[in-house]
Design goal:
4 helices, single chain, mainly beta, Jelly Rolls, Immunoglobulin-like, five-stranded mixed β-sheet, disordered N terminus, five-stranded antiparallel β-sheet
Length: 534
């Protein structure tokens, strides 16, 4: 670096040792320079600091015997030549040796606002040269441009944001502006509406459509109130806008209907004019008000000219995967060119249309299931003898249906399997089943009903998870044999040992098999009562 700088200096004509004042942006390195003329013995490099919490620098001075001081805006020496916060690495230690060296200043806390000077003294410079350095002003207040990508498509509507943070935390209630290209500055908002995705996250956004191809500068400005007074912060970025490879020819939304005018499905037809023959993949996303969505992907090789990409969403999928009334938004259409080495965005459209359809408008399937299980304990002599399970089944045609599901413990232990035939009426039905099993006495709950299958002829429906019971204990179930607590079929010393190990515990309600004498406490009297059952 020093060698290149030295050669550069020899090629430049410099009349005197001087430098222009440079405004130092915070939280980013800023380059400062100063020209040194032959025979010069001093150099001042001014730079302007505002609203910084820390200041550090390094400076290459390619003249032997130099010393450096940092001068604050009041004219006082903030860091002198002998200050331990200033270090120097001589170029003579390099191979090959180089003139001068590098000064490095460690961070100076809370630098005052104003013009600072890097003041360098040295013996008369033998040749014309340049001092080159970096100044870094650190601030707790950070700003930056937030945009999805640096390359966009002409006609694309995007949100452009200005991120404003205080030590990494969002700053609220500000009034920043964002200017795009030659356009006038726009007020940016952090209210979670429109282009702003989330309220009060420190990203102040504007909505902008890049109508034409080209290169555009984005400049964000904000005034931040601080304990020292208001400070101004700016951020900038540049985006490239390119023509799309697919030109939109319109987007049609079709609501497909069946018997009784019910909705059998929704279809999106996206028409394109292909400007570049290639293989493409298109994603069409349908989003419900609850935030759930269904993606349909279509791929194909398209020649130049018109092409239509269709995405269909059946009534069953709308019910199962969205589970919400509309309106359903075509929230995203993205098309990628599938190149040999990379994927390139060829088309993008947000909020392409709305279907005003509710779940009640959708056609019923032959069999429809939903996760809505009710569980009621059935008691016998104060213990749980079985569970009464009830769950909804909706069918299009009346008749007999085969129904099966299983119940497992919290770690997948098999408890019971139910197979039944039920006569169901067309429409909504509440199917009930009474479930009893001795295995409830060996496994603590909660118990889960899973793998529901309902079948009639060629029609079937499945539900992976029906629901769960409360956290019942194995001790609450009606005993197959009174006093047999370990489930080995006999009353013996092992059962007595279980009671003595758990003595002092309050009995569970409504019944507890360990509470042999039914006095509400597990104790040695239960162990003695159990002896009489042997």
């Amino acid at each position: 670096m020093w060698a290149l700088l030295f050669l550069f200096a020899l090629a430049c004509g410099v009349p005197a040792a001087h430098a222009q004042s440079v405004p130092v942006a915070v939280n980013t390195p800023v380059t400062v320079t100063g020209n040194i003329a032959p025979g010069a013995t001093t150099l001042d490099i001014p730079f302007n600091v505002g609203g910084a919490d820390g200041l550090r620098f390094d400076l290459i001075v390619p003249v032997n015997g130099a010393s450096l001081s940092l001068i604050d805006p009041s004219g006082k020496v903030a860091i002198g030549p002998q200050d331990p916060r200033l270090s120097f690495e001589a170029g003579s230690g390099r191979t090959p040796p180089l003139p001068g060296g590098v000064f490095t200043g460690t961070e100076l806390a809370n630098p005052a606002d104003g013009v600072w000077l890097l003041r360098v003294s040295f013996p008369a410079a033998p040749v014309k040269t340049v001092a080159l350095g970096t100044v870094f002003a650190r601030s707790r207040y950070q700003v930056g441009i937030a945009i999805e990508r640096n390359t966009l498509l002409a006609g694309e509507d995007v949100g452009v944001g200005l991120l404003v943070l205080d030590n990494g935390q969002p700053i609220k209630a500000l009034t920043p502006t964002i200017a795009i290209g030659t356009g006038a500055p726009q007020s940016a908002l952090d209210n979670g509406q429109g282009a702003d995705g989330l309220a009060n996250d420190g990203v102040y956004s504007v909505d902008h459509t890049f109508a034409a191809a080209g290169t555009f500068d984005i400049v964000g400005k904000v005034t931040i109130p601080t304990a020292k007074g208001p400070i101004q912060r700016n951020a900038s970025a540049q985006v490239k806008v390119v023509p799309p490879q697919l030109q939109s020819q319109g987007i049609d939304l079709l609501t497909q209907r069946g018997a009784n005018n019910c909705v059998t499905g929704l279809q999106v037809n996206a028409g394109f004019n292909v400007l570049k023959a290639a293989r493409y993949s298109t994603l069409v996303r349908l989003t419900a008000p609850n935030g759930k969505y269904i993606d349909v992907r279509k791929a194909g090789s398209y020649q130049l000219g018109p092409v239509t990409v269709s995405a269909s969403y059946g009534a069953a999928d709308l019910k199962a995967k969205l589970g919400s009334d509309g309106p359903f938004r075509v929230s995203q259409i993205d098309t990628l060119e599938l190149g040999a080495d990379e994927f390139t965005l060829a088309f993008r459209k947000r909020d392409a249309g709305v279907f005003n359809v509710n779940l009640s408008d959708l056609c019923a399937g032959a069999i429809e299931l939903q996760k809505q299980l009710s569980v009621t304990p059935v008691l016998q002599d104060g213990y749980i003898a079985s569970f009464k399970l009830a769950f909804p089944v909706k069918v299009r045609s009346a008749g007999f249906y085969q129904i099966s599901f299983k119940v497992v413990g919290p770690n997948g232990e098999d408890i019971a399997l139910l197979n039944a035939s039920r006569s169901l009426q067309a429409g909504d039905n509440l199917v009930e089943a009474n479930l009893a099993s001795d295995k409830f006495q060996t496994v603590d709950g909660p118990y889960q009903a899973i793998s529901l299958v309902v079948v009639q002829g060629a029609n079937s429906a499945r539900l992976t998870n029906m629901g769960s019971t409360d956290s019942y204990s194995r001790w609450q179930f009606y005993p197959k044999k009174a006093g047999d607590l370990d489930g080995d079929g006999v009353v013996g010393p092992a059962d007595v040992s279980l009671i003595t190990q758990q003595r002092g515990a309050a009995a569970l309600k409504p019944g507890d098999r360990r509470d042999i004498n039914r006095d509400g406490v597990i104790d040695l009297r239960d162990a003695r009562a159990l002896q009489q059952l042997r």
